[in-house]
Write a sequence for this structure.
């Protein structure tokens, strides 16, 4: 089968104890069944420690929501004692993500990891393909797959080569028309053209909505409240990074439309996520690290199915997320 990834995918290296936001802290870590069977077979004192640190298929977090195997040097005792091959699947994969489309597997890096975020923001996206052994996966609608693959290629090309604000606005019109066609059984690619006029955005409503999301980190809501009181906006020097965030989002989420026919909310997610990161950086003030801001945003939004679902609904139901108003967020760029 074909394995398709961004060009930077193979460059990722975990920075382990040098990480300032350890993925072994603050996350519920589920253990896959194969690894659970192995852990149950481990004897000796370490086997006893494993058994005492697992409940209902997950590691029991310690004070400060730390994984019980994260030691005082912020290194993994399972890795040290049993080897990398015996990490559970989620620990082996993170921050990588995968999606399967028939005989095609796609993989990428999640923006929620600081080392991955720096890679994602460091270069434009190019896609590479390699051949790997076949994996068990369900078939998908080949006609819809080919349409969305062509659409995604077009979106990424225009985002990376055209004026970013204009490309985002045209992407929104493109997404509206593509969704209309899919809903009506028309699997043809729309023209790449701007047809909608931007309207004044409701920044306050957008910020209030994001502040209402279920927090992963308890500091999220206070942080959003501080940002609502600060002056955001747009800084041209961030444009290249915001473009890469939008492209990352399109690569990661757009093709999921093969399974549910939904693409407009994912196009809006790419646009709004890019704008939000830029806005939050300016709210934080001089010296803010855009990779850090993007990482924190990703953790709160992309790694909560509840929050992704809330946004998907809001993109249709809330006036502040209408296509003309999202376009208005980019009008002054």
């Amino acid at each position: 089968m074909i394995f398709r990834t961004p060009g930077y995918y193979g460059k990722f290296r975990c920075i382990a104890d040098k990480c300032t936001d350890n993925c072994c802290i603050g996350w519920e870590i589920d253990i896959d069944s194969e690894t659970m069977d192995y852990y149950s077979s481990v004897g000796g004192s370490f086997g006893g420690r494993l058994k005492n640190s697992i409940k209902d298929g997950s590691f029991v977090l310690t004070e400060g929501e730390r994984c019980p195997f994260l030691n005082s040097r912020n290194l993994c005792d399972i890795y040290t004692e049993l080897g990398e091959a015996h990490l559970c699947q989620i620990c082996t994969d993170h921050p990588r993500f995968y999606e399967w489309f028939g005989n095609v597997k796609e993989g990428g890096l999640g923006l929620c990891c600081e080392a991955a975020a720096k890679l994602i923001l460091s270069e434009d996206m190019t896609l590479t393909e390699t051949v790997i052994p076949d994996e068990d996966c369900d078939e998908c609608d080949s006609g819809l797959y080919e349409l969305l693959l062509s659409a995604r290629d077009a979106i990424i090309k225009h985002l990376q080569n055209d004026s970013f604000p204009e490309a985002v606005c045209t992407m929104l019109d493109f997404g509206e028309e593509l969704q209309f066609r899919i809903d009506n059984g028309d699997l043809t690619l729309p023209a790449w053209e701007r047809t909608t006029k931007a309207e004044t955005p409701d920044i306050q409503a957008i910020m209030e909505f994001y502040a209402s999301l279920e927090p992963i980190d308890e500091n999220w809501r206070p942080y959003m409240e501080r940002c609502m009181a600060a002056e955001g906006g747009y800084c041209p020097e961030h444009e290249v990074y915001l473009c890469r965030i939008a492209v990352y989002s399109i690569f990661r989420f757009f093709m999921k439309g093969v399974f549910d026919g939904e693409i407009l909310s994912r196009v809006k997610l790419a646009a709004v996520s890019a704008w939000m990161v830029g806005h939050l950086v300016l709210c934080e003030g001089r010296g803010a690290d855009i990779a850090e801001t993007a990482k924190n945003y990703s953790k709160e939004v992309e790694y909560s199915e509840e929050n992704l679902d809330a946004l998907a609904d809001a993109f249709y139901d809330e006036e502040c997320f209408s296509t003309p108003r999202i376009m208005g967020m980019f009008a002054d760029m």
User: Anything to note?
Assistant: DSSP finds 15 helices and six strands in the chain. The chain has a mean pLDDT of 94. The first strand starts at residue 2 and ends at 6. The two ends are 42 Å apart (CA to CA).
